[in-house]
Each structure stands twice: as structure tokens, then as C-alpha cells.
Amino acid sequence: MEHISNEDRLFFSLMKEPEIQKILIVCHGNTCRSIIAEAILLKNKPKYEIYSVGTKAKGEEISKNTKKVLFENNLYSTKKYAEHIDKIKNIRFNRVLILDDDIEINQNIKRNFTHKRMVQDPYGKELEVYRKVFQEIKEILENIPNMSWKF
User: What's the pTM value of the predicted model, to 2 decimals?
Assistant: First the structure.
């Protein structure tokens, strides 16, 4: 077996292409909160791979008030329908953001950093509630430790 010096290891490690950041955002339905977070990150971190899913998603259409609040903030969602967490079960993520206290996800999905924050579910509520949720999610994304998500 050939011995590799520390200098050689450093040289070869610097030659590796940087890993693309894969971010997962999880809520229950994938029609409001995770869609809002995904849209904010897609605009502000275009080189990241952003995924949003729901633990109870059933393919519903994205909430109309979610679409309205995104439009008001010059954002859009690439999704038309909610996606279940099983759709991404074979993807490894660098970061996971969970937007509800009672959500647990499979350890295979988690990787380096998992952030869990309780954000009110606005589903079925008035537009003003969605606006407040939008601001809360934006603040959470801007203040996650060890991540330069400042916008």
C-alpha cells in the first residue's frame, strides 16, 4: 500500500468539485409552508437543489393563498401539486428544514444538519395569516446557524 502525505491529501481534496448543496424542506401537506420556503430559497440560492415535500401530502393543488403571497413577494413555485416525502427517499441532503414540531423523518434522509422550527400551518386560513407565515419562514431561513442564507 502506497503512503500518501498530508500535503498530497490536501492537494487532492482541493481538486474535488464542491458538492452541490441539497436542501430539503418538510411540512405536513406541502401546499403552504414548505412551498413558501422552497420559493424563497430558489430565488436567493439558485445554485442549490431545493426540494419540498409533505409527510401527509396527497397530491393536492398548492394553496391559492400560498400562490398569492408568493406573487406579492415576486416569487413563484415550480410546483403545482403537493408531493409526498416518499418521492425523495433515495436522495441524501446536506440540510433539512422541518417546519412543524411533530414531524419525524427517516434517518436515511438526514445528513449533516437538521433544523426544526414550529411554524403555524396557514392552510385554509385568511391571506393575512399566510403573510405572517411568509415573514416567519423568511426570518427562519435568514437565521439558521452554520448556513449563509442571508438574502
Answer: 0.81
